[in-house]
Amino acid sequence: MVRWGGVADDFTGATDLAANWVARGLRTSVSLGVPEADQLPRLAAMDAVVVALKTRTAPVADAVGQSLAALDALRGLGCTRFYDKYCSTFDSTPRGNIGPVGDALMAALDADVAVVVPSFPANGRTVYHRQLFVGDRPLGESSMRHHPLTPMTDSDVVRLLTPQTVNRVVSVPLPVVRGGPDALRGALRAAGGEGRAYAVVDAVDDADLACIARATADHVLVTGGSGLALGLPRGDGDASAAMPVEPGFRAVLSGSASAATRRQLAAARGSVAARKLDLAALRTDPAGEVARLTRWARERWSAAPDAPVLVHSVDEADGPDDPNSTNSTNGPVGQDGRDAAPPGGRPAAELVEEALAACAVAFAAVGARQFIVAGGETSGSVVQALGVRRLDLGPALAPGVSWAHGAAADGRAYNLALKSGNFGRQDIFTSGWEAIS
């Protein structure tokens, strides 16, 4: 019987959570979208299932409806505990989806209290005195402050969540966590005893996550980034079964404009054949731009069949206000290439997502089978365009990033590494292939 069910608001977050469950010994699969009837038998054999949605910036009613549909499917699989997975940088606005989705899940599961744990220390996300840090900087002072759809100008998680929810939001400070599971359990019980509530729990290292996991062992619902999954006790089994490796050409498709991805692009420069999307061409002849990139990729693969090609939306030198950035329209560049639409035109981010998804399909048609994809929205668009409905996790590349295997309805199968813009080692675009070589 499936023990854990996850509802993730984007595809990279889903694989992030799945990878951490695998690391704790849980056999885990990712369903890309709410699973359909023909997927249920195989999913039912897992210890954990994550449903990957594209709801982070969707209209609230749509995000809530999809999340409840995912919950119903997971309950039908026999799940007894549930994980509401959102971004570890709490990407959301005062009218955003984290609160409404959490409220709906709490009500459906009749939960009195749900912890809020964005912390993922291995990736530099920590919470101390309610303040969310990215590395050594408060969230509101990090590069996330430039995100044009979800600009994070405040670091206080209680203040961020309160406008989004009908429930109370309380804080549990680090001394309580350091007091051990019993002390934390008592604080959470008190929080839920006064009416339905969220408890923002401080956590600055993995031992804190382990304490929170023990204290919430009887909770039907937890919420946060994927870090809390690493606090689970390690099982005895080996959940990392050998992943099939699909022979074929290799490609990196990067739609992220995060600072981390720009550094990864810089590290790949000179080692990987790369082309930047031409925004002007995408506005006038998107099919022609994809055809041009496909011809170029075929030429590169003809000369070096084992070498990856890289198609990207920003250069490492592009800054948040660079008017020449593919993901910019004289406005700030977001973590996944989001920006405002130019007068009379579509946002560059939409064109980039569509172009990279079309590149994935065109590259697959000429033999590409291994993809590293950077950016949450980009990953969702690429995987949906390829027709993949389920991912089985393979070897880890970095905290929050793993290879996965997925098959499409047309019979083609792929190896995919879906990378949040901010995650991954600096050399991931060049060294990431070693795990499947």
Mind explaining what this structure looks like?
The protein is an alpha/beta fold and 437 residues long. The chain has two domains: 228 residues, 3-Layer(aba) Sandwich (Rossmann fold); 188 residues, Molybdenum Cofactor Biosythetic Enzyme, Chain A, CATH 3.40.980. Helix content is 33%, strand content 21%. Strand 2, helix 2 and strand 3 form a beta-alpha-beta unit. Helix 11 crosses helix 12. The longest helix has 18 residues. About 5% of the residues have low confidence.
SSE topology sketch:
Layout: E1 4-8, H1 11-23, E2 28-32, H2 40-43, E3 48-52, H3 60-76, E4 81-85, H4 98-109, E5 113-117, E6 125-128, E7 131-134, E8 137-138, H5 157-161, E9 168-172, H6 174-178, H7 181-192, E10 197-201, H8 206-215, E11 221-224, E12 249-254, H9 259-268, E13 273-276, H10 279-284, H11 286-303, E14 309-312, H12 348-365, E15 368-374, H13 376-386, E16 390-398, E17 401-407, E18 413-419, H14 428-431
Instruction: Compute the separation of the termini in Å.
Output: 34 Å
Number of strands: 18
CATH architecture term of the largest domain: 3-Layer(aba) Sandwich
Q: Given the structure, what is the number of helices?
A: 14
Name the beta content range: 15-25%
